[in-house]
C-alpha cells in the first residue's frame, strides 16, 4: 500500500499543473452556486424577493454544477494533502477543514433544508439557525477558490513541475 501511495504522489507531482488546473476549475464552478445562493436564497430571506429566479434550464444547470462539488472536494483535498506532505503548515490543514466541512453541509444541512427553512415550509425539528450555518459553510469555499486560482496562475508562470513544487514549499 505504501508503495502504491508513493507512485500516486510521484505521478501527482509530475502532473501538478494539470492537477491544480482541474481542482481550480471544478471549485471555480461553485461560484455559480454561491451566486444563486446570494441572489435567490439569501436575498429572498432578507428582502422578500429574489434578484435571480432561474428558468427550468438554469435550475437544471445549477443542479449539474452543484454535483461537481464532490469531485471538486476530492481534487482540491488532494492538492492540500500534497501540500501538507511537502511542508507541514497550518494553512493546508485549515483549508482541508474548510473543504471537508462541506460534506456536512452536503449530506446533512442541504440546500433544500435552507430554502424550506427560509420560506417557512420546513417540516423539520432542526433549528432555523442551521440554515445560516449551512450558508456560512458554503462561503468557506471562497478562500479556497482564491488560493487555488492563485496557485494555478503561479504554476502556469513557473512551467516546470519541479520548479512549481519548490516554489510551493518555499512560498507558503
Could you give the distance between the termini? 29 Å
Shape: elongated
Tally of DSSP helical segments: 10
**Major β-sheet profile:** none
Which structural category fits the helices and strands? mainly alpha
In round numbers, the mean pLDDT is: 84
Structurally, how many domains make up the residues?
Answer: 1
- Beta fraction: under 5%
What is the count of β-strands? 0
Poorly predicted regions: none
What does this structure look like?
The longest helix is centred in the first third of the chain and has 18 residues. The protein is built from ten helices and no strands. It has one domain. The chain has 172 residues and is an all-alpha fold.
Short description:
The protein has 172 residues and is mostly helical.
Task: Please render the helix and strand layout as text.
Elements: H1 2-14, H2 16-28, H3 30-47, H4 56-67, H5 69-86, H6 90-107, H7 111-119, H8 129-139, H9 141-158, H10 161-171
Helix pairs in contact: 2-5, 2-9, 3-7, 5-6, 7-8, 9-10
Key features?
172 residues, 10 helices, 0% strand, mainly alpha, 82% helix
Amino acid at each position: 500500500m505504501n508503495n502504491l501511495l508513493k507512485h500516486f504522489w510521484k505521478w501527482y507531482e509530475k502532473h501538478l499543473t494539470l492537477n491544480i488546473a482541474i481542482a481550480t476549475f471544478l471549485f471555480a464552478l461553485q461560484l455559480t452556486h454561491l451566486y444563486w445562493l446570494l441572489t435567490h436564497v439569501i436575498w429572498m430571506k432578507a428582502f422578500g424577493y429574489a434578484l435571480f429566479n432561474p428558468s427550468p434550464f438554469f435550475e437544471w444547470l445549477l443542479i449539474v454544477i452543484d454535483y461537481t462539488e464532490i469531485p471538486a472536494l476530492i481534487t482540491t483535498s488532494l492538492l492540500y494533502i500534497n501540500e501538507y506532505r511537502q511542508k507541514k503548515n497550518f494553512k493546508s490543514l485549515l483549508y482541508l477543514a474548510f473543504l471537508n466541512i462541506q460534506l456536512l453541509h452536503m449530506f446533512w444541512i442541504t440546500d433544500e433544508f435552507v430554502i424550506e427553512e427560509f420560506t417557512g415550509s420546513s417540516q423539520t425539528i432542526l433549528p432555523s439557525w442551521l440554515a445560516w450555518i449551512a450558508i456560512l459553510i458554503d462561503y468557506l469555499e471562497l478562500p479556497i477558490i482564491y488560493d487555488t486560482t492563485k496557485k494555478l496562475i503561479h504554476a502556469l508562470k513557473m512551467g516546470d513541475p519541479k520548479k512549481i513544487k519548490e516554489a510551493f514549499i518555499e512560498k507558503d
